[in-house]
Amino acid sequence: MKILITGTAGFIGFHLASYLLNRGDEVVGLDSINDYYDVNLKYGRLATAGIDRASVEYNKLVQSSLHPKYKFIQLQLEDKTNLEKLFETQKFDKVCNLAAQAGVRYSLTNPDAYINSNIVGFINILECCRHHQIQHLAYASSSSVYGLNGKTPFATSDNVDHPISLYAASKKSNELMAHTYSHLFKIPTTGLRFFTVYGPWGRPDMALFLFTKAITESKPIQVFNHGDMRRDFTYIDDIIEGVVRVIDNPPAGNTAWNAAHPDPSSSVAPFKIYNIGNSSPVRLLDFIEAIEDNLGKKAEKQMLPMQPGDVAATSADVQDLVDNLQYRPNTPVKEGIKRFIDWYKTYYRAD
Prior knowledge:
By secondary structure, the chain is an alpha/beta fold. The protein has helices at 11-22, 39-48, 80-90, 111-131, 166-185, 207-216, 236-247, 284-295, 319-325, 333-347; strands at 2-6, 26-31, 61-63, 70-74, 94-97, 136-140, 189-194, 197-198, 221-223, 230-231, 234-235, 271-276, 282-283, 301-303. The chain is 37% helix and 15% strand. Strand 3 and strand 4 (70-74) form a beta hairpin. The relative contact order is 0.13.
């Protein structure tokens, strides 16, 4: 297959591109390389895939020096004209849209970034898929769409009409937009609600990275809601295995779908939503203890109240993933944390 992956300088996109290239697919990677977090880490990811920083220019396809089937382009999804040209010239079979303005807290102070990237950018992707016979669009949603929901584990059959951050609202919007295009134009689309992804090459604004860096540098860590939080931490390799199975299995439409009792996660249209999570929520203080054990160093904790936009607990019901794709994420958190810290020490030469 020839697959466009957006967000390939990002955490999940980088790992997905590596996986697909290793199995023999042809990949075009796209990323805006914005400065939401350290661009050096983004260029570091690209470098491991054979994309040299000096060769990257806006709207220029760059050939990987390591993978003959990999090209990369720096491009914003909001740039509709050049995005359409890319689709026209490259003739993709499938698209995996992982590019987005990430982060819950950042959306409180920079809302425009979410509208531009996550809404305008996504409609441009949908339009390109519509006009270029794309066989399947898989795209990143988020567990944050569950918002104020109190029933756990979170199931894709649950109503998700009460988001508590603009980031979450933008992801819910993506799901609605995708269903519209699946219904009107018969484009197979699958939304992926990721649950707290972590692992090597992870984002510096995420808890594991922040805690590891602070403890290593003997600085205090901020523990929100006084540590009374549970997260369904999901290891990156488990996420990638789930994404690949989804890409390979486009939805055909649910013939048993009932309009009188509509299931939000499927449709008569070729549309589907999956959770991808570990289904084993971990208490934040236990998560921190596992980091301390791997570093051999105790954290100085600043106990703080809940941050606006955050939720107290997440937990994924992945039964659809098991039933339809025979897959259940299962990497234990302690093992995943060890792999991350081993990478962190090597990459940053930290003791």
